[in-house]
Amino acid sequence: MQLVRFDPFKSFLSDDFDMPSQQKGLKIWETDKAIKVEAVVAGVPKKDVEIEVEDGVLTIKAEVKTETENKNEYKSSSYQYYYTTALSGGQWDKAEAVVEDGVVKIEIPKTEAARPRKITIKSK
User: Fold this and answer.
1) Residue among 67, 60, 53, 66 at smallest CA distance from 95
2) What domain range includes position 61?
3) How many structural domains compose the chain?
């Protein structure tokens, strides 16, 4: 058996900023025009999924509770995800979300200022 040393600060020191989020069940990545988010909400119907942005934090909550007929058993599925959005450059008022096959998919268009552009080099 091989021992592997865990470094909790490795992700903070990485130069690879295009890596998707590493929070379990949450995947976040960017394209040139949008920020994309996918979060697992298996077993939770669309009506029980809540998405909000407040004070620069994207919150995804999904919860469903069921009770069996004999009232002695309860089943619950619950998910909560948080992502700090303060520096991402997204147009959060234009975000769109769908729940499909147990995954909530959110697409947030980027502001024009946040989109990558090329700068032309002039010669003297």
Assistant:
1) 53
2) 20-111
3) 1
